[in-house]
Each structure stands twice: as C-alpha cells, then as structure tokens.
Design a protein that fits this description.
Layout: H1 11-17, H2 27-36, E1 38-42, E2 47-49, E3 57-63, E4 66-71, E5 77-83, E6 88-89, H3 91-96, E7 103-106, E8 110-116, H4 117-126, H5 128-154, H6 157-172, H7 186-193, H8 197-209, E9 213-216, E10 219-222, H9 225-232
Antiparallel strand pairs: 1-8, 2-7, 3-6, 3-8, 4-5, 4-7, 9-10
C-alpha cells in the first residue's frame, strides 16, 4: 500500500498567522529555518523528548496539542503547560545548554517542526526583535509558574479545578455547544490541578450536580462560567 506523502509546512505564513516568536524574522532567516528544520508527525501518546535528555534543538508546534510536564519521584506527572500551534518548547534547555528539565508528549495527533539549536542561538545574538520575543516568552512562562506556586499554597483543590477549567476555556475556547475544545483524561486534569485523580473525579461530579458543567466521556460542557469564576477566586 502506498504511503501518504508528508507535506512539510513552510514557516513563511505560519509565523505570522500564529503570532509566534518567529514573526520578526527576516525572509532570509525564515528561509534558513525552512531549509534546516525537520518535520515530524506524532500520534496521541508519542513522546517528543524526555526529562534529563540532551536535546540538539527545539520544537515548534505546527498542529495538534503537546503537553509539557515534569515527573515526580513517584512517577506522577505534573503538567506545566500545553503547547499549541505557533508555540515553541525545549528552547530554554537549548539556551542554557542543560539537559531537558521537562518532558513533552502529544495529547492528540500533532505535526511538529524540530529546529537545530544553533539557529535559536544565532538568531538571539543577531536579531534583537527576535531576542526580545524569546525574553518576553520566558518571562510569561515564569509568571505562570509563580501563579501556580501561589495557587498550590493558598487555594483549595476545588478552587484550583475551577480555575483550570477557566484557563482551558481561555486557551482553547468552546465549541458551538459550549464543550471545551480540548479533551483530557481525568488523570491529566488531576496532573494540572496538582491532586489525586480520585479528587478530580469527585469534584467534577460535584460541579455536575451543581449544574456548573455537563460530562460526556472526556468532554466537558460549561454551563455556568460565572459560578466557576466565583469558586476559583480568580478575580477576587
């Protein structure tokens, strides 16, 4: 049976359409990436890289969703963030010349460009606008990490789950029937909230009983966003 030919995406339109860090690159710099990158397709559950490994480049998401996570001593995952089209991951390990501090896995079928490390370091040195975009991205991720640490210390699991649902709405949106446009297992939700899977299952059931959400397998329908905001104390 003839295999389907993989269509390699070009960065020229992608960088602008996704508002990525590459948006300030010159046409010559974009062409360098197009020439040197390697495009790969991943199925749900495929691992892009593992914590502690040495990576010879970084990744730019073309399609699909990638979860970035750390693994505790008990093997439990702590999801740091989700990477979507236009996002780059593993760039900090490249810039610091250190082993990967996280792991990355596809949570749905994805297409990802792997870009050699020297391109990132060269562009940071030579293109001040690109360097500023990378700096802004790093600061944004650091800010998210600080917020998460504060939430873990000061919020209940119920409050954190409500906040996670709101963040998923903001990041991925809702379809025409008010279902989240991302589907996660109960374990993955627990790994974002930072609690046991059993606790998330119980709280989702409570939210359903309180008419805040509806559940259909992995799909979550948002019924009362205002109440979720009140529970989460996001705007208090």
């Amino acid at each position: 049976m003839k295999q389907k030919e993989i269509q390699i995406p070009f960065c020229n339109n992608c960088a602008v359409n996704t508002n990525s860090v590459f948006k300030h690159l010159s046409s010559d710099e974009i062409e360098i990436i197009n020439f040197e990158k390697d495009f790969k397709q991943y199925k749900r559950g495929d691992v892009l890289y593992s914590e502690g490994s040495r990576i010879s480049g970084f990744f730019c998401i073309n399609k699909g969703i990638i979860k970035v996570f750390k693994t505790g001593i008990d093997g439990k995952e702590q999801i740091i963030r989700f990477a979507r089209p236009g996002d780059i991951i593993a760039y900090r390990s490249v810039l610091s010349n250190e082993p990967a501090c996280t792991s990355a896995k596809a949570i749905e079928d994805a297409g990802v460009c792997f870009i050699p490390a020297h391109i990132l370091t060269d562009f940071v040195k030579e293109n001040s606008m690109f360097s500023m975009e990378v700096m802004k991205l790093t600061c944004h991720e650091l800010g998210e990490a600080n917020e998460y640490i504060t939430d873990i210390a000061q919020k209940t699991v119920r409050e954190r789950l409500a906040e996670v649902l709101l963040n998923l709405i903001n990041d991925f949106g809702l379809d025409s029937d008010n279902y989240l446009r991302i589907t996660l297992t109960r374990e993955e939700l627990a790994n974002i909230v930072g609690t046991a899977t059993e606790s998330v299952i119980r709280l989702l059931s409570e939210f359903k009983s309180d008419k805040l959400i509806e559940l259909s397998g992995r799909k979550i329908k948002i019924l009362n966003r205002k109440s979720l905001e009140k529970i989460s104390n996001v705007f208090s």
